[in-house]
Amino acid sequence: MAQLKLNPAESIADEIRKQAASLGISVNAYMAPYLNAIARKELVMVPHFPPPSPPQREPSVNRK
């Protein structure tokens, strides 16, 4: 069975740990419903919203 590894930002990981601790359960038990929903394709990752700004382009200079 394959394992799914997550690499969230440290602040997100800390918040997940705090929420699990406040419920008196392990992080694995806390995350299981979410990971199962992802596996069943009921919960999907969405693109970043709002989308990142496109890179700024330098104005072109017409030389004659």
Relevant terms:
64 residues; mainly alpha; 0% strand
- Overall mean pLDDT stands at 79
Order of helices and strands: HH
Please tally the β strands and state the result. Answer: 0
Strand content: under 5%
Terminal-residue CA separation: 65 Å
Low-confidence stretches: none
Largest sheet: none
Topology diagram in text:
Layout: H1 10-23, H2 27-39
Task: Please tell me about this protein's structure.
With 64 residues, the chain is an all-alpha fold. The protein has a domain at 10-39. Helices cover 42% and strands 0% of the residues. The radius of gyration is 20 Å and the shape is elongated.
Question: What can be said about this structure in brief?
Answer:
With 64 residues, the protein is mainly α. The protein is built from two helices and no strands. The protein is elongated, with a radius of gyration of 20 Å.
